Every structure is written in structure tokens, then in C-alpha cells.
Amino acid sequence: MKLYMTQTKFNTYQYKRRVPTKLSKYFNTNTIRVSLGAELLEATQQAIIFNTTLNEALQLQPLGISKDILIGQ
What we know:
Layout: E1 5-7, E2 13-18, E3 31-37, H1 40-60, H2 67-71
Antiparallel strand pairs: 1-2, 2-3
């Protein structure tokens, strides 16, 4: 599984992923970019959570699930 996690020049980690086309109508941007902190283990756990959430939303979207459920408002 690709984590979409990079290390910045300040030795912190960042999650950066393009918004999947099928979910673009739910976002105001084309890229999701989130700071994950400086600890590798915690950053990896957060990246896995973001990936899992986006992948679940991709699977639920064709089922006509409510926008509130997909993006967790």
C-alpha cells in the first residue's frame, strides 16, 4: 500500500495525495496535504488512517451514500 507520506526538509512528515476524481466533488482542492508530525511511527499510523478513509469513501461513493457520511462532517 502506498502511504503518500514524505519527509520535509524540516524533518517532519507530510501526507500529500491527489484527490481521486470520483471524490473531487466533495473537496474544494485537488490535493490533500496534512502535516503528520516528526515521529515516524505516529506519522505512518496517521497516513494509514487517511488512506483507509479515502479508499472506503471511494468504495461507498458509487452506492449513493450521503455526502455527510463520505467526508465525515
